[in-house]
Structure of GCN5 family acetyltransferase:
Amino acid sequence: MPFVTPLTLKGEHVTLEPLDLSHAEGLAEAVRDGQLWTLWYTAIPQPEGMQAEIERRLGLQAAGSMMPFAIRRNDTGALCGMTTYMHIDAVHRRVEIGSTWYAKSVQRTAVNTEAKLMLLTHAFEELRCIAVEFRTHWMNQQSRAAIARLGAKQDGILRNHQRMPDGSLRDTVVFSIIESEWPTIRRHLQYKLGR
């Protein structure tokens, strides 16, 4: 199934590699950069939980619902985050890009823009998706702003959508890019990277 067939996406700034257990130590180090697991409105693994999180994502890949990647900086060779295609719907040719986190030191750099450009290019031009979704917690203002900067449009808010690990209820903000918007979004992201 092409939606979950492992592949590597290489750009100028980052490489997205098929996630595997050999990434555990480097990703544990990356998540320490900013102590990302302390953000209450996200579900980012603690360093000691990284192997279990990788195993969870690989299990979802085996079930056909996720394609997970490790994100590696090209300048230093260090791992700096994770991302996925998730909630894969091959019949209707839709995916969500999500379960993404980045080390604090690469946030608000070209890393996210290039990673999203590569993921969106593959989704629209190789997988022939009709839409790509992004979802985030209502309270995650940084993520909401980053998704909007990509050019995605807000579809709506799913109220009381999920229960968080701390028991609080999450309102989920849903964004998407549809197939007809892709040429404009691609040009926008290429322009941002070229500046």
In short: The chain is about 30% helix and 30% strand. The helical segments are 24-32, 50-62, 110-126, 141-150, 182-194. Residues 110-126 form the longest helix (17 residues). The chain has one domain: 9-194.
